[in-house]
Amino acid sequence: MGWIHARFIQPMLTLQTTVHSVSLGVSLGLFVGLTPTVGFQMVVVFLLGTLIKANRFVACAWVWISNPLTMIPMYYGYYWLGSLILGRKLLGYSSFAVRLESFGREGFIAGLRELWNLGMELFEPLLIGSLLVATLGALIGYPVTYVLLNRYYRRRGAAGDEKPTTREPSVQD
After folding, report:
1. Do residues 137 and 30 lie in contact, with contact meaning Cβ atoms separated by under 8 Å?
2. Contact 22, 125 (CB under 8 A)
3. In terms of pTM, does the model score above 0.70?
4. C-alpha of 158 from chain center
5. pLDDT averaged over 10-residue windows placed end to end, the chain, 173 residues
6. How high is the pLDDT of residue 163?
7. How many Cα atoms within 13 Å fall on the side-chain side of residue 35?
8. What distance in Å separates the CA atoms of residue 103 and residue 155, rounded to the nearest whole number?
9. Contact indicator for 24, 54 with CB cutoff of 8 Å
10. CB atoms < 10 A from the CB of 164, how many?
């Protein structure tokens, strides 16, 4: 728990930005991190974060919810969920992992070719499952972050560490 606090929570508390911007960053980072976009997540977060005025630093940190160690188990979960929704027969985890294992190993373009070769048999259910999980993660991430950050600043203000404010609290307040 100390590692999570040091890597994710504490940096959010020291940024000079609004609680809304940080909450959007968490939501965006979760959404992108929970989709099969490994290899270009940071680009997506930077572009979308700029458009919606989310904190891009926070969003970039949260996309690491998916990484090379968690990618195959997460993608199998998405594939399983999508196959269930579509009513398709499932590949076992081992078969899925073997077929997906080489994805992206030779670079982004080679990964796209491999994904194309996997075809809709795997990609369609994987995409549907991931979009469902990513949307749920984003919808939960924003309000939870917003409430927890506001609660943190109210407690800090009650302890005399912070002046009360009538505007939206910022992370630096």
Report:
1. yes
2. no
3. yes
4. 32
5. 69 73 94 89 91 91 85 91 93 79 63 67 90 97 93 74 45 46
6. 38
7. 22
8. 47
9. yes
10. 10
The pLDDT assigned to 96 comes to 78
Question: Are the CB atoms for 65 and 33 separated by under 8 Å?
Answer: yes
pLDDT of amino acid 123? 85
Q: Is 11 helix (H, G, I), strand (E, B) or coil?
A: helix
- Write b or e for each residue in 117-137: b if 16 or more Cβ atoms lie within 10 A of its Cβ, otherwise e: ebeeebbebbbbbbbebbeeb
C-alpha–C-alpha distance, residues 107 and 126, integer Å: 20
Q: Give the count of alpha carbons within 13 A of 169, CB side only.
A: 22
Contacts of 75 (CB under 8 A, 6+ apart): 36, 96, 100, 126, 130
The Cα 12–Cα 6 span in angstroms is: 10
Residues 140, 76, 93: CA angle, nearest 5 degrees: 150
